[in-house]
Design brief:
By secondary structure, the protein is α+β, with helices and mostly antiparallel strands. The chain has 4 helices and 8 strands, in the order αβαββββββααβ. The longest helix has 27 residues. The two termini are about 25 Å apart.
């Protein structure tokens, strides 16, 4: 059902764009162009919708093991079911962590999505607490943040914050209707990631807590 709705949304999106161009030509270019390829998000004629998703779970293992796992995105497909492939476009250097990777995702709705992720910050203190921040471009544009917080010698809380803008025109057009569907899909992907992480590290399957919000 979701696939049918998204396919219909794309058809309507193309129809609206074509109709807008026809009207623009008829009025000799008086109307603003609807080309979205080079127009900054805040200047586009359609509204921009931001989504915020937060997932949190706990694993019974040292925080260093989680850090090592998350620091190597090229190995994520080994334990994250929805991630089919990771292409490392620019590996991190000896003195920084600015990895640039192309992630190929398979969603719960049967759709594929490619996201460019560039790690911009990775910090870890002597107590095992760490943060890994990356910027995303592609189907979504925004920021992802991993937070690793040990609560004991052999226990760690993991939080992932995903704050993005919808990039594709048809997504922004149907944002109010798609919000719940996109949240459901994202949290299913995170649930699979948490379970895959637990299996990879030999931990019990975790209970994942989720929160979602958005700002138009």
């Amino acid at each position: 059902m979701a696939q049918i709705f998204i396919a219909m949304a794309r058809v309507v999106d193309r129809s609206i764009r074509h109709l807008y161009r026809c009207i623009q030509v008829a009025f000799c270019g008086v109307l603003p162009a609807m080309s979205l390829s080079k127009t900054p998000p805040l200047e586009r004629p359609w509204h921009t919708t931001s989504l915020v998703h937060i997932s949190r779970w706990r694993l019974d293992c040292p925080s260093s093991q989680v850090w090592d796992l998350l620091s190597c995105p090229e190995n994520w497909p080994q334990w994250w079911q929805q991630l089919s492939r990771v292409e490392i476009l620019k590996p991190c250097g000896a003195s920084d962590c600015t990895t640039h990777a192309l992630l190929h995702w398979r969603s719960q709705m049967g759709l594929s999505c490619r996201v460019h992720c560039q790690t911009t910050r990775c910090e870890q203190d002597a107590h095992g607490r760490g943060e890994i921040e990356s910027h995303a471009q592609g189907c979504f544009q925004g920021m992802g943040l991993w937070v690793i917080e040990p609560y004991s010698i052999r226990g760690v809380d993991i939080t992932y914050r995903w704050e993005v803008r919808l990039h594709k025109p048809w997504m922004r057009l149907f944002a109010p209707a798609l919000r719940g569907l996109l949240s459901w899909n994202h949290f299913n992907v995170m649930q699979a990631g948490a379970q895959g992480m637990a299996r990879q590290l030999g931990c019990h399957s975790p209970l994942v807590s989720n929160w979602s919000g958005g700002v138009r």
